[in-house]
Amino acid sequence: MTQHLADRPQPASGPGRSQDQAHDWWRDAVIYQVYPRSFADGNGDGMGDLAGVRARLPHLADLGVDAVWLSPFYASPQADAGYDVADYRAIDPMFGDLHDADALIRDAHRLGLRVIVDLVPNHSSDRHEWFQRALREGPGSPLRDRYHFRPGTGERGDAPPNDWESIFGGPAWTRVADPDGTPGEWYLHLFAPEQPDFNWDNQAVRDEFRSLLRFWLDMGVDGFRIDVAHGLVKAAGLPDMGHPGQLKLLGTQVLPFFDQDGVHEIYRSWRQILDEYPGQRIGVAEAWTPNAGRTALYVRPDELHQAFNFHYLNTPWDALALREVIDSSLDSMRPVGAPTTWVLSNHDVVRHRTRLGGSLARARAATLLMLALPGSAYVYQGEELGLPEVEDLPDDARQDPAFLRRGAHEDGSGDGQEGLRDGCRVPIPWTPDGSSYGFGDGGSWLPQPAGWGGLSVAEQTGDPASTLELYRAALAVRHAHPALGAGADVEWLEAPAGVLAFRRRAADGTAFVCAVNTGEAAADVSALLATGKALLVSGTGPDTATDTVTGTDALSAGILPADTTVWWQE
Ligand code: NOJ
């Protein structure tokens, strides 16, 4: 499979890009997350796969995104939907093989799309060869040192080594049997028991991941989304948390196993590897940290390029709260010179349409706000269709270990969909009919709701009021407008209560205004938008008219309806 880099088509720069911007493509890229199980099924077995993704790449090119991030497709027993990797250099047969990955990367590049793959360095699968050997060889084996094995506490060693909790519920330790069958040591798993944590003090672990980076860079990928980037290094001596209690996905607690300063040395060494390759290969940290300032440390100039902004994702639909998190996000990135990122949905959280209150209008307004902010933005598959969370999946269909281990949550947390992740992973609809609405010919691994086809890509294409056309229009405006993307900073404007408004002025003087009504009633914004014209309004579908605010009577009277965002050219 190894091929010369020169043979590989390099992604073209997007429309309206200068050479310099192409050079720093990641500073304002819109990156689309593909969840391979649920995007498109090429072989009709009910499970999405790489052939399916490849066949649907034109949808992403038409949408106008710059890059695709693929959630894990590696060989895996799928205890955590592929975030439990048994072989980091192989594709799981249910997704295809390395030839499919190669073809996908090549096709994406031909379409001008960059490809980012998920790297899972905090833990492997318990089926990984190293872990299996560690079990077989027993205490004292050098293979055990690649993970965190410890004797238990209590008289018979039958209590865990410390009080750490798994994110999926219950203790973060599981006891194994010694090779002779007697109860033996415990191993650490911050997630499911099938996901043992690597010991990053072990040199073999460090060497292996540097080699893995090269393997995938040689395959032509443009970067890595680094899973649990904040978790690799644990506090020395593995001290107790002190306050056990259920931990949350994307949480902000200060913990002895997250966000330790030692992680940064690892990312400095990875940056050197990324920089050896042409074309600006990037690293993106999935780092849950206590505040935006801590997140910024991951993207210092000699570390990674981007970090997800979960503080933004976790912010309620409220003008003041949004203004605060936007300010703190931008302020924290300034000293390190990294782009801020924005994200509303991913495969771990309730889809933003449902999370923010259920109305499609609000979801669309939230999206236009996100896409108007300086920096890079992430779009999760299906949000461009306005998909809601599927909240009524039958229990026996669910596969999320967070659900399967729910009984282990002592405090009964996880009411509703919170902490449950299958509802945002339902295969997406491509056509109005068919056994799985065009997802594939063989049904779908999670049941799709009745009516899902009405939200399909085919159904929405060409309908100017559709959410899909709103996303397409927004991404086109964002690419073409000189004040959008990375460049101009945010200048807050005075606005009525509940309204968030800011101006961004391009170097050539062109001024763009974004106004968002998060309140419950329509707001008079006539003073704010006195001169100029609307570029796009979230509530009425795309309106790229250049001289009038057609189709938005309320807005032309200076009234911004509730749950509406307008993009305005001053
Ligand atoms: C974060 C991933 O996004 C999530 O899906 C996964 O369960 C955990 N990391 C563990 O790998």
Task: Characterize the structure shown.
By secondary structure, the chain is α/β, with parallel strands linked by helices. The chain folds into three domains: 5-123 and 203-460, Glycosidases (TIM Barrel); 129-188, Oligo-1,6-glucosidase, domain 2; 488-569, Golgi alpha-mannosidase II (Immunoglobulin-like, Sandwich). The chain has 16 helices and 20 strands. It has an eight-stranded parallel sheet with strand order 11-10-9-5-2-1-13-12. A five-stranded antiparallel sheet has the order 14-15-16-20-18. Strands 6-8-7 form a three-stranded antiparallel sheet, with no helix packed on it. Strand 7 and strand 8 form a beta hairpin. The chain is globular, with a radius of gyration of 24 Å. The structure holds 1-deoxynojirimycin (NOJ). 1-deoxynojirimycin binds at residues 80, 83, 120, 191, 227-228, 286, 347-348.
List the helices and strands and how they pair.
Layout: H1 19-23, E1 30-34, H2 50-55, H3 57-63, E2 67-70, E3 74-75, E4 87-91, H4 98-110, E5 114-119, H5 129-137, E6 149-150, E7 173-177, E8 183-188, H6 203-218, E9 223-226, H7 263-276, E10 282-285, H8 292-296, E11 306-307, H9 310-313, H10 319-333, E12 341-343, H11 352-355, H12 360-372, E13 376-380, H13 401-404, H14 457-460, H15 467-480, E14 491-492, E15 499-505, E16 511-517, E17 523-524, E18 533-537, H16 553-556, E19 559-560, E20 564-569
Parallel strand pairs: 1-2, 1-13, 2-5, 5-9, 9-10, 10-11, 12-13
Antiparallel strand pairs: 3-4, 6-8, 7-8, 14-15, 15-16, 16-20, 17-19, 18-20
Helix pairs in contact: 6-7, 12-15
1-deoxynojirimycin (NOJ) is lined by residues 80, 83, 120, 191, 227-228, 286, 347-348.
